[in-house]
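Why should sequence recovery work at all? Because a backbone constrains its sequence more than one might expect. Tight turns favour small or flexible residues, buried strands favour hydrophobic ones, and helices have their own preferences. The token representation captures these environments compactly. In the example below, the structure is given first.
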């Protein structure tokens, strides 16, 4: 019955995708229903004696979201037996707390910069995927936290204030209120600096302000929302991390993301784990 519900909704514009994937749909439903593939040990003790040497997980990076493209890609991945995991799960897997069996494909979704289409297009896609499959896709959203003036406390910023304005006629950014709405739909806020400065090019003082003001403001959002991520993770603007990894680690971040185009992650890449750029 679950399988039929997933494959016979003819009102969905992605029915052509579904028809092409009927043969693998049942395997996806059974694996989700029976929880056969991913093993998350109970308690805090690691499941392995040592962390795995390599994690093969695709971390996708989006800026602008196209509703139809994003939804089609997510459905195709799910119906082929793939699993969406959170950034916390990804870090747990690297530490050996979250076991990804050989041959199981996993994917992490990240959205950068706080573009307006992430709520107008992305949120619609997330909701429809959940309605049609029962799967809630966790998203890690890395926001620029300028809000016109980084010196104004975030609590005093009006809800309709854009998080960033870059002077472009095409780039439109989320408002403070939008970020709250997305957080209510499993889109978790993370730090992407205050002004999207290119960290290796800045003075130490300017760099510190970029990262730390952004982090402080993200923590205000989390406090208001009651969010407590297991791991705090940073994303470098432009993916540029030269001479920045030790500083980010010293601030207490558990990991950081770059824009290196790779699915292979090791303990050596923890502060520059790569992502596959989708938009």
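From this structural description, the recovered sequence reads:
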């Amino acid at each position: 019955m679950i399988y039929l519900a997933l494959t016979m909704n003819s009102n969905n514009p992605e029915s052509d995708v579904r028809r092409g994937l009927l043969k693998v749909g049942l395997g996806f439903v059974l694996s989700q229903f029976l929880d056969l593939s991913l093993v998350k040990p109970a308690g805090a003790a690691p499941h392995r004696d040592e962390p795995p040497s390599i994690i093969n997980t695709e971390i996708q990076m989006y800026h602008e979201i196209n509703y139809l493209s994003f939804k089609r890609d997510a459905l195709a991945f799910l119906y082929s037996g793939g699993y969406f995991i959170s950034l916390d799960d990804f870090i747990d897997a690297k530490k050996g707390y979250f076991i990804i069996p050989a041959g199981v494909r996993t994917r992490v979704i990240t959205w950068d910069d706080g573009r307006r289409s992430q709520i107008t297009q992305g949120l619609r896609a997330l909701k429809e995927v959940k309605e049609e499959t029962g799967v809630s896709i966790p998203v890690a959203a890395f926001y620029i936290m300028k809000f016109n003036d980084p010196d104004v406390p975030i609590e005093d910023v009006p809800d309709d204030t854009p998080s960033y304005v870059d002077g472009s006629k095409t780039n439109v950014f989320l408002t403070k209120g939008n970020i709250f709405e997305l957080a209510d739909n499993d889109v978790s806020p993370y730090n992407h600096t205050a002004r999207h400065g290119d960290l290796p090019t800045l003075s130490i003082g300017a760099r510190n302000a970029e990262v730390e003001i952004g982090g402080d403001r993200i923590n205000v959002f989390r406090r208001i929302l009651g969010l407590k991520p297991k791991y705090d993770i940073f994303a470098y603007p432009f993916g540029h991390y030269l001479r920045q990894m030790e500083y980010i680690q010293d601030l207490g971040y558990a990991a950081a993301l770059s824009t290196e185009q790779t699915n292979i992650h090791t303990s050596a890449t923890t502060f520059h784990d790569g992502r596959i750029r989708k938009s």
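A few observations help interpret the result. Residues 1-37, 41-47 have pLDDT under 50 and may be disordered.
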